[in-house]
């Protein structure tokens, strides 16, 4: 065990670091019930559009969320909600990014709402293709429809 501890001390693992890339407001139609399946209650939420803007240092990564995507939801028996949102975002320069966003929501927890995701971004070759080579995590807030207007 001493060798193991010495090896870890001599080669510390780098701590993951995060940096905000963008913020978005996405508009959706009301949730549609798809019935109960073997893993829980299923729903779909059609995505109708939205806007996103790059965070400081990424200001040119801004544009619109395109309509036509959807958020597939599973409400598990333990109350946890799993979301799989698939949609496109069009950067102001015309580039279309394909987004796959998997979200886990545990609401409420003793420490408040837990809503974190991991995203896979597919970008065409060019200015934004570096997005294909990174790991992205996200957070999410749901706004009541009246607040989005």
From TrEMBL:
Gene3D superfamilies to which the protein is assigned, alphabetical:
2.40.160.20
Pfam families named in the record: DUF3237 (PF11578)
Q: Which InterPro entries match?
A: UPF0311
Q: What is this protein called?
A: DUF3237 domain-containing protein
């Amino acid at each position: 065990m001493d060798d193991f501890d010495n090896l870890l001390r001599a080669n510390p693992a780098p701590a993951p670091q995060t940096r905000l890339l963008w913020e978005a407001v996405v508009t959706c139609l009301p949730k549609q019930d798809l019935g109960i399946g073997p893993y829980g209650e299923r729903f779909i939420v059609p995505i109708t559009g939205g806007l996103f803007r790059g965070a400081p240092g990424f200001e040119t990564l801004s544009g619109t969320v395109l309509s036509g995507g959807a958020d597939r939801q599973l409400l598990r028996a333990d109350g946890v909600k799993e979301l799989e949102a698939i949609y496109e975002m069009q950067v102001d320069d015309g580039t279309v990014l394909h987004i796959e966003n998997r979200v886990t929501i545990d609401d409420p927890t003793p420490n408040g709402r837990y809503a974190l995701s991991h995203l896979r971004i597919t970008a065409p070759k060019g200015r934004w293709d570096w997005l294909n080579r990174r790991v992205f995590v996200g957070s999410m807030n749901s706004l009541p429809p009246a607040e989005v207007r």
